[in-house]
Amino acid sequence: MAEFEYGPAEFMVAQFDTDRPSPGVVEAILDLVENGTVRLLDLVFVERHDDGSVDIIELEEIGDEIGLTDITLDATGLAGDEDVQQIAELLEPGSTGAILVIEHLWAKDLANRFFQSGGVVLHSERIPAPVLNAVAADAFDELETTEG
Fold it and tell me: Which InterPro entries does the record cross-reference, listed alphabetically (predicted)?
């Protein structure tokens, strides 16, 4: 059986109160790509102005400015115009968003192994970190209360 060219991918949207992501955000993206955790398939920036209008900024336009000149996008265009416009509606006026389409390389390997063994991933759902941490903290507090 052939190997998958791509594994599961995820749209991730981050909002910034500034017009560009901070150096720390850029460093985090570079670190994840360089250590092989993810492959960056597409990256688009969106500015939502106070009047509600939207500007779409491609990586080529600001890569030098924010320190992402050495990054290669492996499938530009995955974040299509319709997706970007819908996601832009999530942004608060006066903010900027980064839309990342990332491939989880560990998940690609796992999906390949399932497929080669005759299995298939039927469902996958990401739980946002703030939600998971809040639920875990509540469960821990409840456990302490019942044991205490």
Answer: DUF6325
- Tokens 């759902």 belong to 125
Neighbouring C-alpha atoms within 13 Å toward the C-beta of 97: 25
Single out the residue of 138, 142, 122 nearest to residue 130, CA to CA: 138
Which pTM does this prediction carry? 0.75
Where do the structural domains in the chain lie, given as residue ranges? 9-119
Give per-residue burial for 108-147: e unless 16+ CB within 10 Å, then b. beebeeeeeeeeeeeeeeeeeeeeeeeeeeeeeeeeeeee
| The pairing of beta strand 54-58 with beta strand 9-16 | unpaired
